[in-house]
Amino acid sequence: MIIKILGSAAGGGFPQWNCNGTHSANVRFGKRGYRARLQSSLAVSDDGASWVLLNASPDLRQQINETPELHPAANGALRNSPIKAVVVTNADVDHITGLISLREGQPFTIYGSDRVLATLNANSIFNVCSPDKVPRKPLVLDTPISLEGADVDTGLTIEAFAVPGKIALFLEKGGSDANYGSRDGDTIGVKITSKSSGKSFFYIPGCAEVDPPLADRIRDAALLFLDGTLFTDDEMVTQGLSQKTGQRMGHISMSGPEGSMEALKPLNVKRRIYVHINNSNPVLDEMSEARKLVEASGWEVGFDGMEIRL
Ligand code: MLT
Ligand code: MN
User: What is the pLDDT of residues 194-213, one digit of tens each?
Assistant: First the structure.
């Protein structure tokens, strides 16, 4: 199984278009120790021929152009693509908008939870991926199924599970009607397994907490990609970028007693890689103390183009 990080940044990317905060400014002027990052997406393939996207970011066109494995086969039909399916793990802008770039009548399959598919179904712009060519298949939680493209079995299975998270920002109602926290499948994690090798990994780019059910699920895993949005819960507030904490945004922090580094210590997950990294996160600076701490704790900071074979 081959896994490639197409985008390791959170929504907005790195640098974010309108951000003049320390890290976005540093990467923009090319400071040593920083690298630019596209928005949140992975690609996975069992055989190197059929690929599945895990989330479709607003940067998808660029991500495909920069990834030869995702190009049309030069000796193939006039219209062809190795992208056979797309899995969306929530309805956030950074995870669904790339679907619109996959118009042009190419068959593939969209997978998501009932809740996320309901959001796509409610917005007619996603009909540019016409449902007769691009079926939308629900992921029944806690039930492994075969990942199928329009005309091909990808050789992979997927098991989706709900994680503590949040509904999409654009669906939030404010005030006393606040509706954002959710553990019902608005945000899912997925376990992807190769049918040929039996090897598997977990991909959980949005997650508010490693609660006991999630800890049990990922214990002893070979490989985990986890929500690395923030280093500390209040960093966007202290950097003057936003009034929101990580918890308010549905994201666990890396550091602290409730953070992911601490939560993963007893779980024996062999390879741990942070993805969905926000422009406020000090680990974006390879020279930072935060980066050293994360790496000393056995974590890797994912980067665009990172390839893992399992
Ligand atoms: C998030 O991960 O919190 C979202 O991508 C935020 C957003 O939609 O901008
Ligand atoms: Mn996001």
Answer: 999 999 999 999 999 999 99
